[in-house]
Amino acid sequence: MIPSITDSTVKAAIAAIASESATTQEKIDMLIELAQGLQKKPQNAQDLWSAIALYKRATEMCSDDYPLMKARAKVGMAGALRTIPDEGTELLLEAKAAYVEAIPILQQLASKEELAEAQMNFGLVLQSLVPFNLAQIADSIKAYQEALRVFTAEKYPEEYAILHNNIAIAYLSISVGMEQKQLCEGLAVQTFESALKQITLIENPREYAMLQNNLGNALQYLQSNHPIENNLRAIAAYEEALKVRNAQDTPLEYANTISNKANALFNLPDDPEKPEAGNPQNLLKARNYYQQAWEIFTQHQQLEQAQIVAQALQELETEMQLSNQQLQRQ
């Protein structure tokens, strides 16, 4: 039987700790490095649990003599805990506690980039805890904004784009009254548009497509007195995203965007100047996009997304039948 990467890594780590030739600092370094290796490309959840075990061992070895290394081990452990699929909150709360302990040390001893990365991931943990009433969305946004002090568009476009994306999604998730909800949705749209002034199709195509796709979603579901205008703007954003996303190179992202575009077309009159005339042409376009998306999601075993698209297709077929009946009566 061929041992898994995890087995050999953990064994190597144990051997390093047992070795008398290595200093304590070298042993801690090796434990953290091996844990990071497992964490970067985990084959399964067990790899992440093994990484956590190595981080914990490194933390124990640090005592109070190596505060920065201890903080790094805590941050690594928090990242692994955040990544493990879990329907509850136990792992997220453990990750939150690790960040709370590590970040003040990083503020004193680490580089500003290392600190900003920890703040960025801390924001994600807080955002994940908000639905359980175990964190405030304002604290999540604050952590992202702290990270943006370092991750500027000029030096770190990828992180800059992701942070703006996360902030906008945080605004959209705030549950408040209708009037405040409109304000939060407006802030989300502004956040996407602000990022897109810095992130270009040529320089950062992947991040550009992500921001355009999510801007389209925000526009499409905006509480507004101008739904047709918003849907037209949403479709324009999806078309920008589709300049990057295609069925060959990025099939799942492509399927995601065309299903979003189909949602917008479903609610858009063929002639925005004559909404009373209905949208049989746009419904046909939407059906084509939904069918493509369903095939891609099914082919890639994304069954939950495939089911959502199948349900949308069913609703669209019903709408088309109603539309045909109305045309026949006219």
Q: What would you note in describing this structure?
A:
The chain is mainly alpha-helical and 330 residues long. Helices cover 75% and strands 0% of the residues. The protein contains 14 helices and no strands. Helix 7 runs antiparallel to helix 8 and helix 8 runs antiparallel to helix 9. The longest helix has 27 residues. The chain is elongated, with a radius of gyration of 24 Å. It starts with a helix and ends with a helix. The model has no long low-confidence stretch (mean pLDDT 92).
Record the SSE blueprint.
Layout: H1 5-18, H2 24-40, H3 45-62, H4 67-83, H5 90-109, H6 112-129, H7 137-148, H8 157-173, H9 178-196, H10 205-220, H11 227-241, H12 251-266, H13 280-299, H14 303-329
List key phrases describing it.
14 helices; 75% helix; 0% strand; mainly alpha; 330 residues
Assign an overall shape: elongated
Helix content: over 70%
Q: Rounded to an integer, what's the Rg over CA atoms?
A: 24 Å
Give the topology string: H per helix, E per strand: HHHHHHHHHHHHHH
- How big a fraction of the residues is strand? under 5%
Structural class: mainly alpha
Number of strands: 0
Largest sheet: none
N- and C-termini, Cα separation: 73 Å
Counting DSSP H or I runs of 4 or more residues, the number of helices is: 14
Q: What would the average pLDDT be, to the nearest integer?
A: 92
Organism: Calothrix parietina FACHB-288
InterPro entries: TPR-like_helical_dom_sf (IPR011990)
Protein name: TPR repeat-containing protein
